[in-house]
Fold this protein.
Amino acid sequence: MRNAPPPRHMPRMPGQKMDWKAAKRLLSYITKHYKLRFALVLLCILLSTLAGVAGSLFLQVLIDDYITPLLGNANPQFAGLLRAIGWMAMIYAVGVLSAWMQNRIMVTIAQGVLRDIRNEMFAHMQALPIRYFDTHTHGDTMSRYTNDADALRQMLAQSLPQVFSSAITIVTVFLSMCFTSLPLTALVLVTVSLVLVVTKKVAGNSGKFFAKQQKALGDVNGFIEEMIQGQKVVKVFCHEPEAKAEFDRRNEALCENATKANSFVNILGPINNNLGHLQYVIIAIAGGALAVFTKSISLGKIATFLQLSKSFNMPINQISQQMNSVVMALAGAQRIFELMDEAPEADEGYVTLVNAKEENGVLTESEERTGLWAWKHPHADGTVTYTKLSGDVRFYDVDFGYVPEKTVLHNVTLYAEPGQKVAFVGATGAGKTTITNLINRFYDIADGKVRYDNININKIKKSDLRRSLGIVLQDTNLFTGTVMENIRYGKLDATEEEVYAAARLAGADGFIRHLPQGYDTMLSGDGSGLSQGQRQLLAIARAAVANPPVMILDEATSSIDTRTEAIVQRGMDSLMHGRTVFVIAHRLSTVQNSDVIMVLENGRIIERGTHKALIAEKGKYYQLYTGAFELE
């Protein structure tokens, strides 16, 4: 197993306070890009709410001004009543249209905000260091794009406008109740206070469980992804019962947290509904008493107030019922923002890689691609120097550890001159891959220096540094697309002829032309239709088309059979000609022609030299080479 940083401790579960910070941050996306449309939504909510309140107030006018006078009239005239009903119909029509517009616009805003968040999250993920992906499961990261984002969608499209609508309704209805009857309004406030106390208590208990639910959901997704990727290993070692038991444990944790979260929230509706019914009865009794004993309130006002009290309780109930999706969405938002707040990969480099041309022995920058590359090095005094990209890599007394308390590499000193082939051999965990990770700055050294073409590697911009390197990893990654697109991934503007040449160089052209559509054959599922060796050949072709001056081959032929290896080796010899090459190989036969072989043990270089010289020394390399085993 390769050296890798240990997983970090589990993050602290967010509480309600953190969720509200996430809510404020979430609202900033709306106010930043959708301010006018959201203002229109609020206007539509206001119109819709006012239409509902006007309908409640109309009951008093209907009963006191129209129905009651008509009861004692021998020749009732309905013209005034019909006009009033006509006006109310128009008011209700405005309310219905406003509600329709509100929903349509809010859906657009919700999808736009999610698009912006996903774009920002993905862009930030591209800037994260490799260390982040070493310490987070892919399934948990995917859960932030899917489950957490879907919870946000539901809240933005449904819960958020409902909360604003309810808040506006509460204010307008309260003012209407005060205008209708102050004594009955005071009575309503007493009963509503009880509702608020219950809501706060239940919502407070549910918040922590919704946060745990989202975290548990990410754990389940991560485990499922691991099992899908490792199904062959699971079956080979008959590990199905243990895998099922582990999934049951994680799924049980998800079920427990989800049950607790939803059980608290789901009881809010019945509690508040029953309290609302009790309030309705109390108001009816109190209103009747005022009408009978004090004559201070009319029958129409009692009917209006009863309707207003229902309108007042309804938004409170709706807010409490929306707490389910709101709290869950805020927990998801906190996880999304946690990813977005991860520190990006630091890059303080200022030396860049540019196209160059050489005239009379002097390098100058060229706007056209010349095939000649140079490092553009600006200096403090305003001058700029150009250094030809040749592939000279040197380590000076380098120490490194994935975590401060454990050093992986100790006092590593090495050099690779342009065109040299340097091989690293040693047992698993000796530090071979770690050295190559430092060359491309996936990680930064703790002490010492690494110089590239006599330039401190920390001064080189990371994107330009990596552009000068070609890497073929042991783990091959192919992407959904055609064979040609996968090879062209190494050089996006490569011509078809350059792709064909790279494939021939890697020994991949023969099997590619036998595919159903040749170079236009679609690959999916990480090239699942190809053999492991064929996938590796495509990875080598992808590196070849980039035509870099430095190549890193991390056990590049480990998945290729002996016959195919001979074909690939010839191609790779051509590929490596004139380039600086770092080779990590578990088959010692593949490194015999290296200019220098370095033997690592426990993060230290214990032997170095050519194959012939190391065999003559009869040290560790001799033992490995003449033994009945090869490195893993």
Remarks:
- The first helix runs from residue 16 to 33.
- The CA atoms of residues 338 and 374 lie 39 Å apart.
- The two ends are 9 Å apart (CA to CA).
- The longest strand covers residues 352-359.
